[in-house]
Write a structure and sequence with these properties.
25% of the residues lie in helices and 37% in strands. The protein is built from 2 helices and 5 strands, in the order H-E-E-E-E-H-E. The chain is globular.
Length: 84
């Protein structure tokens, strides 16, 4: 496990946008900053899109978890894999 201070440094060194997806392959994220992302998700064959702005501490932790997840739930992907 990486100490909190190390995680803060990792976030500060990131370039944006960052791209992630859940391991189930149904939710994709384009992360613009530690405070905002766009999500594309699939229910059946239908595609949905939502924009998200962090307003609370919990919101910021959700984005932090997307950025720093160790691969158990979230995988880093290339921009070309993000559904257009």
């Amino acid at each position: 496990m990486v100490p909190s201070d190390s995680k803060k440094l990792i976030l500060e060194d990131m370039f944006f946008p960052q791209y992630r997806k859940y391991v189930n392959g149904k939710n994709f994220f384009k992360i613009f900053s530690p405070f905002a992302f766009e999500e594309v998700y699939f229910i059946g064959k239908k595609q949905y899109r939502r924009s998200f702005q962090a307003k609370t501490y919990t919101d910021k932790m959700e984005i932090r978890d997307l950025l720093l997840n160790d691969g158990l739930l979230v995988i880093s992907i290339e921009a070309s894999e993000f559904p257009g």
